[in-house]
C-alpha cells in the first residue's frame, strides 16, 4: 500500500493557483463544528424534474447523472431509451438531511418497466428502524436474456417513490439518478447462473500489519479507493463513510470492519445495530450488509463476503448473487448509528481489513469499452486503490493523488499554501476531520435497513420479504 509520488514543480504550482481560486469563491467555508457533511452529488449532475405521470417523464441519457427531489409520499417518472442488445441499470440515491427523523418504513422504491406496464425489475430500501438518516441507494435494471421480458428496443419508464411516516421529517429529499449501460456482448453467453451453494465458505486469513490511514467519502462520488490491506478511519455518531474497491472478473471481495473502543460517558450503554457495513456494486446495486451491537468499552466486528464476480450471476434468483454480475468498483459504506452520540465521546475508530481473493480472469468480449462505461477494472483503477484517492483526486493530479509535495524544487511557502489549500478544499467537499467536535448528544435513535432483491418478470420474492 505504498503511496506514489509523481508530478512536476509546475504541476504543483498550478494546483496551488487553482486552490487559491477555489478559496476565493463565496460559500467555500468548512462545515460548522459538530455538523456532519451531506452527501456529495456528482460534479457533472444535471437537474431533471420528474413528472407525476409516465406519459411525459423527462428523458435520461445513457451515462448521465441527474438530480431531483422527493417529498413524502411523492412518486416521479422518468423515461429512458434502451436498445435490444445492451444491459442497463438505473439507480436512485436518496439523501435525507443528516440528523433528521426517519421511521421504520421510510425509504424509496424504484421500478423499471416497459410502456405497456411489463415490469423489468424493482427494488425497495428502507431504514428498518426509527433513527439515523443516511443515504439510501436502490437500482433497477434490464438484463439481456433471450426469451425474457423487456428485451425489445424502445422507451422504458423509470419511477422513484418515497415512503414516509407522518411522524418523520417532512423535508424534501435530494435524489441523485444515474443511468449506466453496459456495452453489448459479442456472440452468445451462458444464462444459467452458478449454484450459490457451491461457493467457498472458508474465509482467507485477514490482512495484518500496520494500518494505513484513510478518510472515507460522503457517498459514491467521493468514495476513497481502497485495495487489499489494512485501513483505519474514524466515524462520528450518525456518520456514513464510503470506500471503493476494484473487483475484477473471477475475484471476490471479502472484508472485516472492526469497530474499536471509544471514550464513553456510560460504560453500560449500548446500541443495538450500532455499527453497520453495506456493499454496493458498480451500478449502485445492493450486494449485502450486516450490523452489530456496539458498546463503547467492547469492540465489535462486522464481516462481509460477496460472491465471486461472474457474468452469469446476473441471472441468479439470489438477490445478493445477482448483484455480482459485473466487474468494476465495488462500494463499501460503513455507518455509526446516531444513537451512539448519547454515550460515545468523540468518534468511533474503525479498522477495515480488505481482501480481494481469486485471480483476475478474462471477462466477456464486449462490442465497446466496458471499463469506460463503469463495468471493468483498469490498471489506473488499481493504482487509485493503492493510493487511497477519490476519482476526482486522481483526475486533478494525473491519477497520482495529491502527493506533489515531495519535489524539492517547491519552496516552503508553496508547500504551506498547498497544504492549507488541500485541507480547506477537503473540508468543503468531504467530511469534517474524524476527531473534530463530536456529534451532539441526543441525536435521533435506532438505525436499521431493509433491502429487497432484484426481481425479474415471473419471479416471486422469497418468503419473508415484503
TrEMBL record:
Tell me if Ligase is a UniProt keyword of this record. Answer: no
Q: Which residues cross the membrane?
A: 404-425
Low complexity: which segments have biased composition? Answer: 187-197
The residue stretches assigned to a coiled coil in this entry are none
Arranged from A to Z, the UniProt key words for this protein are: Membrane, Signal, Transmembrane, Transmembrane helix
Q: Where is the signal peptide?
A: 1-31
Question: Which portions of the sequence form the region Disordered?
Answer: 28-66, 187-221, 356-397, 435-466
Q: What is this protein called?
A: Uncharacterized protein
